[in-house]
Amino acid sequence: ITEMEIQSILLPLVEYVSVVFIIFGGVLPYIPQYIQIKNTGNCDGFSLYVCLALLLANILRIFFWFCKRFELPLLAQSFVMLAAMLAMVHVSVASKRQQRRVALPMEGGSRKSTGGSVESPQGGFWNWPDFSSYAAFLLLFSAVAGFVSFALSGWPAYVELLGLAAVLTEAMLAVPQFHRNRVNKSTAGMSVAMVALWTSGDLFKTAYFVLRSAPAQFWLCGLLQIGIDLAIFGQVFAYQGRKE
Asked: Are both 31 and 138 inside the same structural domain?
C-alpha cells in the first residue's frame, strides 16, 4: 500500500470522525452531570442557566442557518444540543420536585404546630416548578425569534448580528456556573468531568471552525469559551478542600 493510498483512506476517515464528534461531542460533557443528578436526586451544584444559554443559542443558530448557510454538521449539532438541554432541564426539575416533596412534610409539621400553613415554593424566571413552563417559554421565544429573523433575513447587518448573538450566547454558557461557584465559594455538586469535557470539546471545535473556514463569529467565541472553561478549572483548585 502506497502512501497515497493510505492518505486516501485515512483522510476521509478523519473527516468522518470529526463530523460525528462535532455533531455529538457537544453533549458529552453533560452526561456525567446528568448521571450525577439522576443518581443523587440533587441538582443544587448545577446551574440551570447553563441550559438556558445553550437552548437560546442553538435556537438562534438554527435561524441563522436559514439566513446564511453554513455547514450542515453545525446545524445538526444544534438540534442534538437542544434535545440534550431539554433532558437536563427535565431531570433537574424532577430532582427539585422530589426535594420539595421531602421538605414540605417537615415544614408543614413545624408550621402546623404554630398554627401556620405551608407556603408554596418560590419561583421566578427560569426557576419554574414544572417542565411545561420551560417548554412554553422556549416555544414563545422560538416563535418571536423566527418571525423577526424571516422578516429581516434580507438585511445583511441583522443576519450577521443574529449569528453573533447565537455564538456569543453559547460562549457565555459557562458564566452562570462560574458565578454559582464564586457565590458558593465551592464547586461541590458540579461535575469536574463535565468541565474537562467542556474544555476539550471547545478546543476541538474551535480548531474545526478555523480549519473549515466557519464564519468568524464561531471561532472568536470559541476562544472566549476556552478562557471561561479554564477559569472554572481555576475555581476547582482554589476551592479544593472546602466543604459545601
From this structure: yes
- Whole-number Å distance between alpha carbons of 50 and 101: 25
HEC string for the chain: CCHHHHHHHHHHHHHHHHHHHHHHHHHCCHHHHHHHHHHHCCCCCCCHHHHHHHHHHHHHHHHHHHHCCCCHHHHHHHHHHHHHHHHHHHHHHHHHHHHHHHHHHHHHHHHHCCCCCCCCCCCCCCCCCCHHHHHHHHHHHHHHHHHHHHHCCCCHHHHHHHHHHHHHHHHCCCHHHHHHHHHHCCCCCCCHHHHHHHHHHHHHHHHHHHHCCCCHHHHHHHHHHHHHHHHHHHHHHHCCCCCC
Distance CA 57, CA 163 (A): 9
User: Domain check: are 78 and 146 in the same one?
Assistant: yes
What pLDDT, in 10s, does the model give residues 168-226?
887 777 788 888 888 888 877 777 887 888 888 888 878 877 877 777 777 788 888 88
Which cell is 178 given? Answer: 462560574
Together in a domain, 21 and 136 = yes
What's the whole-model pTM score? 0.71
- CATH code assigned at 204: 1.20.1280.290
In this structure, how many other beta carbons lie within 10 angstroms of the beta carbon of residue 113? 8
